Amino acid sequence: MADLSQALVEEGYEVSVVTGDWPESEQTEYVHGVRVYRVNQFFPKPMGFLDEVHFMNYHLIQKGAELLSHVDFDLIHAHDWMVAPSAKVLKHAFQKPLVCTIHATEWGRNNGLHNDMQRHISDLEWWLTYESYRVICCSEYMREELRKIFQVPEDKLSVIPNGVRAQDFANVHEDLDTWRNNWATPEEEIVLYVGRHVYEKGIDLLLSAAPKVLWHRPQAKFIIAGKGPCLNELKKQAWDLGLGEKTHFPGFIDDRTRNSLYRLADAAVFPSRYEPFGIVALEAMAGQAPVVVSDVGGFTETVQHGENGLTFYAGNANSLADNILHLLEDKAFARNLIERASRDLKEKFDWNQIARQTVESFKQAALKPHEHKEFYERYQLTSNFSERGGRIRESSNHGRW
């Protein structure tokens, strides 16, 4: 979202972002031409996660109403379920078109809905897609997921990929060879993971693949950066597998360290079980690392096996190990993948190009009935479609202009 907002400004549009708090941040600031308003979501002190979400939305509504009362914004753009309540209120209160981007679904993250919290989040996701005039998702995989789970009408959906700013990954530590000694010995080959430590990211599969990789390439070293609720469990798994000093869990790393590790990595691995798009693969490509990803979700649309990266059979540690070994054993092949990946980033995943596509979706959402008669007639205003799961072709709710 930050990159998209910046790209929209570069394309000549005015963008204001209202978002949650961050410790020691100013309440209002300019970031690359984007005016950013940070609200205090931690007051009153939340009693739990849902309280935190609700309090944040109260503050988002307050700030959003203040801005909309003084500036004639053309459109409201909401990202994911956590801002669904404020997006709905501001849409109806100020009669503004609403567009949402769904980056992932609770159903997809958990392979179904298994408790009340997951069902509640899924309901909010559906609510946001129902209230939005247009729904943006990042891959064809996500398009099908939204149609299957929420019955979002096909002609209400836009598929627009995420992108990456390759120049952001050029900032690396000076004298990389010397800096590398902090992470691995000169003869070791770096297998890198960067991301959240949660089940859906499949880090346990990477650890399960490590023994086979080390059998053939004992000089391999696994660096697993990031944090999350599975961290201690993953450390125990590494210990039980006897990986010892061949695995390193550095925790959270800053951007410069991440960029440097990508530049040094012999393989960047993302073994996700669920991945609506997989922007981490693009970031690794921008960091000039050869990538190995699972053949799930959006990964299959960004990584072409043997062309700009490698894909393995999702959930199969043996397949993952074989693909890692391919990169470690054939450095020339790995360099060819990096070169092709760099071209793809420029041609397919440039944020300014993505911003222009997003504007086209915005324009469709902002159409007036008399400007697009057939579109309007297809979605007559209805007020009776409050039940989820039935036939809701009219769920676009395009009558409120």
Structure keywords:
401 residues, alpha/beta, Rossmann fold, 4-stranded parallel sheet, 13 strands
The first-level CATH class of the largest domain is given as: Alpha Beta
CATH topology of the largest domain: Rossmann fold
Poorly predicted regions are 379-401
Structural class: alpha/beta
Give Rg in angstroms: 23 Å
Query: DSSP strand (E) fraction?
Result: 5-15%
- CATH superfamily grouping of the largest domain: Glycogen Phosphorylase B
Indicate the multimeric state.
single chain
Order of helices and strands: HEEEHEHEHHEHEHEHEHEHEHEHEHHHH
**Averaged pLDDT:** 89
Largest sheet: 6 strands, parallel
List the helices and strands and how they pair.
Layout: H1 2-10, E1 16-19, E2 28-31, E3 34-38, H2 49-70, E4 76-79, H3 84-94, E5 98-101, H4 106-110, H5 116-131, E6 134-137, H6 140-150, E7 157-159, H7 176-180, E8 189-194, H8 203-216, E9 220-225, H9 231-240, E10 247-251, H10 255-264, E11 267-270, H11 279-286, E12 291-294, H12 299-302, E13 310-312, H13 317-329, H14 331-348, H15 351-365, H16 373-378
Parallel strand pairs: 1-3, 4-5, 5-6, 6-7, 8-9, 8-11, 9-10, 11-12, 12-13
Antiparallel strand pairs: 2-3
